User: What shape does this take?
Amino acid sequence: MEETSFVIPISLIFVLLHTLPILTLSPPTSPSKSPLPSPSTPSSSTLDPKQLRALQSLNIPTSKDPCTTPKTLQNVIHCDNSKPFHHLTSLHLINCSDDVSLSITALKSLSTLQDLQFINCPIAPVSFPSELASNLKSFTCFNSLRKLTGVFLSHLVNVTDLNVTGVPIKASGPVIILAHLKKVNKVTISNANLTGNLPGKSWNSNISHIDLSKNHLKGKIPNSITELENLYSLDLSSNQLTGELPTSIGDLIELRNLSVSSNSLSGSIPESIVSMPSLVYLDLSSNQFNGSIPKFLADMKSLKYLNLERNNFQGILPFNSSFIKRLEVFKIGENANLCYNHTTLSSKMKLGISPCDKNGLPISPPTKSPSSDDDYSGDDSDDDSSSEDSTSKKSGGHHGPNKVVLGVAIALSSIVFLIIFLILLSRRCA
Ligand SMILES: *[C@@H]1O[C@H](CO)[C@@H](O)[C@H](O)[C@H]1NC(C)=O
Ligand SMILES: *[C@@H]1O[C@H](CO)[C@@H](O)[C@H](O)[C@H]1NC(C)=O
Ligand SMILES: *[C@@H]1O[C@H](CO)[C@@H](O)[C@H](O)[C@H]1NC(C)=O
Ligand SMILES: *[C@@H]1O[C@H](CO)[C@@H](O)[C@H](O)[C@H]1NC(C)=O
Ligand SMILES: *[C@@H]1O[C@H](CO)[C@@H](O)[C@H](O)[C@H]1NC(C)=O
Ligand SMILES: *[C@@H]1O[C@H](CO)[C@@H](O)[C@H](O)[C@H]1NC(C)=O
Ligand SMILES: *[C@@H]1O[C@H](CO)[C@@H](O)[C@H](O)[C@H]1NC(C)=O
Ligand SMILES: *[C@@H]1O[C@H](CO)[C@@H](O)[C@H](O)[C@H]1NC(C)=O
Assistant: This one.
């Protein structure tokens, strides 16, 4: 009874789900009626005919009416609701073919666009007509357009979201671009061979996301960057930055994500960092930071990712195992003058640094274990300060060995039994 009463509604739902798409797909148009539409008279389109012709002249594959069937295999198109014809607001070109080619005349007709994305489209760039450039709110260029200039990007004056990745940018520095983008909230200029220094001023004070990773930026991190009080994420990794972290870095109270890895930064970890209540992700790896590792890092409640490896930190690691286990990722290896207290931390944690001697100095240069690059994942629990026993490495409870011996014995005896059984069986049959 109960079973059948369940089955019927479920099968009804299936039937409904299968018919719904058909119902929604059928209405749009009756294509059989319109005679062969020539590209010059796209009368059946709800998109402005000028814009449809522009798309066609750029060799961008589109359907007859891109506004009602916005998604083709490679492109995303969105239109507004204006009458009598819709206008393009959004155009994403993805994996475009070689015959797509930009022309200024065609782009002039497309200046209603607010969102323009090129993703894997290594076609030749053209300078955008000024009306298009100033209308754009969002511009993405990912492995596309071969190369760009700072001047080109500086024309996108109203852009709030800029993402240029994997395209070389010729510019004397980021300031050329950022000084003109007064409204930018999220900026990613990454893997772009961008040279020059980080700008001190000239950021939009409202900016929430800065990613200038994988470039050739030089010089110091300016103190004034810590005045960006809405900054949520700062990624300056893989550049050639020098000097120390600004002591006022803790003023960035909204910051979740801070990465300055793979630069040439030095000095110690500023104390103000403890006053960043929301910091989740801190990556200082592969620099020349020195001094001792501050214990206050353990008081940062939101921290989940802490990477301090490949630096010159020294002294005794001030963390206990409950802090390290609370983190999702903790890396500390390749700090030659740093050691851990082996009465409080187990060697099983494979921290990649050596234990301390009585004087708090590393016992020996750390043996480069193959797993020193691995993240520590807290799966063993020995909070008592017993000295480590390196024999039972995995799943080593105190009762572990006995169970293993028992299991092996049972397995062996059943194999022996099976063999005897088979021999007896074969003799019978013969
Ligand atoms: C674009 O090409 C890449 C690699 O060839 C492929 O992984 C990706 O799925 C393609 N994207 C689209 C939207 O076709
Ligand atoms: C873009 O910015 C210019 C000047 O900065 C302004 O005059 C214009 O109204 C803006 N356009 C849009 C669409 O916001
Ligand atoms: C940056 O420059 C290097 C060396 O000149 C080159 O190999 C690399 O392809 C460039 N990167 C980009 C995104 O063009
Ligand atoms: C700052 O951001 C807020 C919300 O994100 C927005 O309302 C405001 O207009 C922005 N101000 C400036 C100067 O960009
Ligand atoms: C922080 O940055 C890392 C690496 O760039 C990224 O994987 C992670 O998702 C980011 N986390 C947040 C909270 O933005
Ligand atoms: C750390 O590095 C800075 C700059 O390189 C240097 O001035 C300072 O003496 C170093 N401190 C220690 C404790 O080694
Ligand atoms: C570990 O360190 C944290 C932070 O210093 C502290 O709050 C906690 O009580 C310590 N836990 C143990 C078991 O010592
Ligand atoms: C290691 O920790 C134990 C227990 O907290 C302490 O007695 C000992 O002095 C520490 N060793 C060093 C070198 O600091």
In short: The pocket of 2-acetamido-2-deoxy-beta-D-glucopyranose (ligand 2) is lined by residues 134-135, 157-158 (CB under 6 Å). The mean pLDDT is 80. The first strand starts at residue 75 and ends at 79. Residues 44-124 form one domain.
